[in-house]
Structure formats: C-alpha cells, structure tokens
Design goal:
Blueprint lengths: L7 E2 L16 E8 L7 H9 L1 H7 L4 E6 L6 E6 L4 E5 L5 H13 L7 E2 L33 H8 L1
Parallel strand pairs: 1-6, 2-3
Antiparallel strand pairs: 2-4, 4-5
Helix pairs in contact: 1-3
Subcellular location: Mitochondrion
Keywords: Mitochondrion, Ribonucleoprotein, Ribosomal protein, Transit peptide
InterPro entries: Ribosomal_mL43, Ribosomal_mL43/mS25/NADH_DH, Thioredoxin-like_sf
Length: 157
Amino acid sequence: MTSRGTPSRFLQSVLQNGVGRYVCQLKRLSIIFSKNAQSSLGIRGFIEEGVVDYAKYNPSTVVYVSPQPCRIPKIVAEYLNGNVREEIVTGKTSIQISEVLTKLTNQSGLDIIRLRKPFHTDNPSIQGQWHPFTNRPPCIGPIRPQKQDAEQGLSNI
C-alpha cells in the first residue's frame, strides 16, 4: 500500500516467465452450469460448439465441465500461483463466453493493481545511466556546433 491508499507494486514477471519458454499460468478451468436453467443457455451453447476447440488450443489447461443444479452459471479459473477467479456468465452468448475464456487464459492470476514504474530490474546498476559522453575525456572540452565551410573560408582570407 502506498500513501495514496491504492495498492501498487513494481513490474515483475511471473516465475521469470518469458526467460525460457512461455508457460501459461492458467492451470484448471471449471465450467459450472445447469442443464435446465434459462440463465445457462449461452454456456450450454458454448459447450456444444467451442469447448473442444478451446481445449485443443490450450493443451496445458485442464477443462472440467460439470452440470450442477445451480441458478447462476460460472467459470472458475485456477492459476499456478494458487489464485482462483470466478466469472459469472449469466445471459452471455457463446461468443462472449469465448472472450471471457481468452481473457482468463491470458491473465497471470495476479491481482490487477497500479504499477509504480513501467520498468524494473532485480540487479540495478550502481554506476548510473549510460549516455554517449560517459567515457569522453574531459581534456577535449565542451561540445560546440561545427562551423560552416563558408565562415571558415572568410576567416582565412
């Protein structure tokens, strides 16, 4: 927490993801719906049309489809870091449910909070930032604009 009252942190990679190969952070996806309820109509359509395609494109994610006597259909996503997200999909179409699954798949499971800086390093340099004149010898003097040829020719006459 900062003095502004909103949680914040530095930018970081989840488990150094991207250093080697990419590892999808979504571990398990549970689709909970009712066989008969009107609110589960969209999720039942998605199960008939798109759940097999989703499972093919995301082989590292386990997909559970569980029909239960419930009034509110939901998608429960479990991530590698232990976080669990629930998305309620009442009254959504199969295309909207596909977009929700894509969003859950691309997330890391961390809470969405304000970033302090857009960059961060685990090994900061104590030498300071480099620029083109860092190692320039001081005896050369300051850098000045070059004189044009016409001015040099007049000064030689």
